[in-house]
Write a structure and sequence with these properties.
Elements: E1 10-13, H1 20-50, H2 57-85, E2 91-92, H3 93-126, H4 131-134, H5 137-163, E3 172-173, H6 180-184, H7 192-226, H8 230-259, H9 267-290, H10 294-312
Parallel strand pairs: 1-3
Antiparallel strand pairs: 1-2
Helix pairs in contact: 1-2, 1-9, 2-3, 2-9, 3-5, 3-7, 3-8, 5-7, 7-8, 8-9
Length: 313
């Protein structure tokens, strides 16, 4: 680097290129969605913790997904809301790198958790008599710890590779948070290694897990078709279809973003795609994954009845 070049100490997030009046409307809508995300996932997490009937591997994994979704939203949405109020407000370099690290960590963990949950459904439907033996608590804890460890390690690798780069030119990130590809565009050095590692990691946490999920659900579909009872077939299909909705939304948008040729998508289209799996997906998870589940509904009714009885007494 030449001596007359200045080192970037803060970034400005450009967010959405819209009029101030539309910014206010979006601020209100996104604030409502953010509150719904926190309340929905918090409700699921609270029900699973308080109701002993939900202390099973399936709901243990759901509680982990709820924790990740809450952390996901808290990492990116507040900064986006602040940016809508004051587009010129900068974010420090350290804050931007922290946001990138946390976003990547939770994204990787969610990918791996969705695979773990698909395996749990595969064992429950295809090998019901061996379910308690295969999905013991030691196995469940090992799967979750491995997911968190691998997600954090991969994010640390990406962040370390970013920190080795010099940032000396423009400091405007054309995004609503410090997304890794948008940050790399501002580096004053060759980012070839970073992009290779991103592509390799995408294969590991997107393509690989998606293939495993599809294999699991192909076996599940065959098992469901063999069920003689129409009610049993409907219940099994309902449980698994909600999981497939989450998988489709999350993996589909992520693969398009990180593995499709970038020339096919404008920067504004990329922001919309990021909204799907960094904002809308955590909001929709409790709705389509848990709150439509009969056992969760019964747990909610039990909790409400308990509260009403305690107030009467």
């Amino acid at each position: 680097m030449e001596e007359n070049q200045t080192v970037v100490t803060e970034f400005v997030l450009l967010g959405f290129c819209l009029s101030p009046r539309i910014h206010i409307v979006i601020l209100g809508v996104f604030s409502f969605f953010y509150a719904f995300t926190l309340l929905g996932n918090g409700l699921i997490l609270g029900l699973i913790c308080l109701d002993s009937r939900l202390h099973t591997p399936m709901y243990f994994f759901l509680s982990q997904l709820a924790i990740v979704d809450i952390a996901y939203a808290c990492n990116t949405v507040p900064q986006m809301l602040v940016n809508l109020l004051n587009p010129a407000k900068p974010i420090s370099f350290a804050g931007c790198m922290t946001q990138t690290f946390l976003f990547l960590t939770f994204a990787h963990i969610e990918c791996l958790l969705l695979v773990v949950m698909s395996y749990d459904r595969y064992v429950a439907i295809c090998h019901p008599l061996q379910y308690c033996t295969i999905m013991g608590w030691r196995v469940c804890n090992t799967m979750v710890i491995t997911s968190w460890a691998c997600g954090s390690l991969l994010a640390l690798v990406h962040t370390s590779l970013i920190l080795r780069l010099p940032f000396c030119g423009p400091n405007q990130i054309n995004h609503f948070f410090c997304e890794i590809l948008s940050v790399l565009k501002l580096a004053c050095a060759d980012t070839w290694l970073n992009k290779v590692v991103i592509f390799a990691a995408s294969v590991f946490v997107l393509v690989g897990p998606l293939c495993l999920v599809l294999v699991s659900y192909s076996h599940i579909l065959v098992a469901i078709l063999r069920i003689q009872s129409g009610e049993g077939r409907r219940k099994a299909f309902s449980t698994c279809s909600s999981h497939l909705c989450v998988v489709g939304l999350f993996f589909g948008s992520a693969i398009v973003m990180y593995m499709a040729p970038k020339s096919q998508h404008s920067e504004e289209q990329q922001k919309i795609l990021f909204l799907f799996y960094s904002f809308f997906n955590p909001m929709l998870n409790p709705l389509i994954y848990s709150l439509r589940n009969a056992e969760v509904k019964r747990a909610l009714r039990r909790a409400l009845c308990t509260d009403s009885h305690s107030q009467v007494e």
